[in-house]
């Protein structure tokens, strides 16, 4: 009976590691403007989107279905470009006791960068499937954010 799990994916990005990481720790409130699968975000508790004590409410689409949850920063490690979010409430609690998203953005020796996403979860029972739809969701959001950041960079060069 396995209730704990972890899924990971690494995605190449065009934006610099610093710029991509910075977006997720200082511009998270912009996600709904740049990610097709994020429908709505709002502050639920707190005054600053990027404070570790703030709770945000998300409405998003996974596997063609609209879902909601709450999210808060658990850890931000700027030196290692790593951030951890705890997701809870809404649709998350229907399937999982614990659910975390971890982003680490890594500079590669060839000058490119990689966004590594990890989903750590604890299912409420063994009949619950792993959150594979989250990997597709994170992949699409990564591509959307990267396209936005790359477009912004290209526009400044003109």
TrEMBL record:
Pfam families in the record: Bet_v_1 (PF00407)
Listed transmembrane segments: none
SUPFAM superfamilies in the cross-refs: Bet v1-like
Residue ranges of every copy of the Bet v I/Major latex protein domain listed in the record: 2-152
GO biological process: defense response
InterPro entries: Bet_v_I/MLP (IPR000916), MLP-like (IPR052006), START-like_dom_sf (IPR023393)
SMART domains: Bet_v_1 (SM01037)
Family designation: Belongs to the MLP family.
PANTHER family hit by this protein: POLYKETIDE CYCLASE/DEHYDRASE AND LIPID TRANSPORT SUPERFAMILY PROTEIN, POLYKETIDE CYCLASE_DEHYDRASE AND LIPID TRANSPORT SUPERFAMILY PROTEIN
Descriptive protein name: Bet v I/Major latex protein domain-containing protein
Record organism: Vicia faba
